[in-house]
Amino acid sequence: MATRAAAAARHPAPHADARDPSLTRRPCSVHVRVPFLDLQAPHHELRAEIDAAIADVLDRGWFIRGQLLEAFEAEFAQYCGVRHTVGLSNGLDALHLVLRAWDVGPGDEVIVPSHTFVATWLAVTFAGATPVPVEVDPATYTIDPDAIAHAVTPRTKAVIPVHLYGQPADMTGVMAVAERHGLRVLEDAAQAHGARDQGRRAGALGHAAAFSFYPGKNLGAIGDAGGITTDDAALADRVRRLANYGSSRKYVHEEAGFNARLDEVQAAVLRVKLRRLDEWNARRAQVAARYAAALADGPVALPQVRQGAEPVWHLFVVRSAARDRLAAHLEAHGVQTLVHYPTPPHRQAAYAALAPAITDADPWPLATRLANEVLSLPMGPHLAERDVDHVAAALRSFDGP
């Protein structure tokens, strides 16, 4: 059962009711410029702490696999409610290395959502396996457990549900299907730092989870970064070894590995930001609730939230059959928007062999329709109420279907 975005935003994370000086009203103006995301604001807010953390790394003189990485791994594991975190170079490596550690490879199939960022599929390809797309729930845009059940074959080894836009997938349903068929479940939590499903955080809902800490994420580094979470000590150890050239001891290589380590600078910055993650997610919930209230009768379809899910609003995505005209209309009113994602993975050249020719029947029509209709509005913990109101007013003035 899905409800409007406002329903989930009525239960924000701690500190959501605290008044922030950036959330003040001002009259709307056509001269306003509302960026899609302000990447400078969080660093201005935490400048002293981040500068001190980086200086500490420089003073220590230890830049790879040091004490600060170990501290971040312990803190993020505790935050997610799992036993282990392994810091890695980026979210794609995180997905890929878990599959490798599970010995997923040539001849195997991994079920993935049809509507997602292509990295979800690429991880399967890099492992040598075959991505098997299934359609998503048209209300929440996350993978449909029933579709997973129909796609299982004797070659299926794993499922990668994506917590898209910060909305947790139906993990109760996903895990039930996986248990029936003996499948591994790898959460793609790249957009869901702090999200909950049935009270448990993303990162603790499957057998393992992969995170991206790309700068624009809810928990973002100052460069590429990623990691995995799991309760499986053997999995954590093997991923850590694979990420370090297949080595557990210097110059001893138990297997062919990769260079996919998280460095000390990124770990230090992530430790600072992790302490503010719940507060910043609560601010995002305020923005989502304000959008939902202002656009309840507007010309677009609003995001919906499944009962028991607590999203963290990495993105606030609306839908319109006139998406491109709407984006141009908002741009004319000073509002920057983005499309996540304009081309579905099965229509990318990288996967041309997977789908029939463009003139043939589309095997994943919902993914194609979403790619043509979704539009991401400005969202972030530093987006002022006055700017939310300006975006909403500009959107309401759109004369579209």
Automatic annotation (TrEMBL):
Keyword Transferase among UniProt keywords: yes
Single Gene Ontology BP annotation: polysaccharide biosynthetic process
Superkingdom in the source lineage: Bacteria
Keyword vocabulary terms for this entry: Aminotransferase, Pyridoxal phosphate, Transferase
Stretches for region Disordered: 1-22
Gene Ontology MF annotations: pyridoxal phosphate binding; transaminase activity
InterPro entries per UniProt: DegT/StrS_aminotransferase, PyrdxlP-dep_Trfase, PyrdxlP-dep_Trfase_major, PyrdxlP-dep_Trfase_small
Chain intervals with Low complexity compositional bias: 1-11
CDD domains with a match to the protein in the record: AHBA_syn
Gene3D superfamilies according to UniProt: Aspartate Aminotransferase, domain 1, Type I PLP-dependent aspartate aminotransferase-like (Major domain)
Record PTM N6-(pyridoxal phosphate)lysine, positions in chain: 217
Active site, UniProt feature: 217
SUPFAM superfamilies in UniProt: PLP-dependent transferases
UniProt similarity note: Belongs to the DegT/DnrJ/EryC1 family.
Name the record gives this protein: Aminotransferase
Organism: Roseisolibacter agri
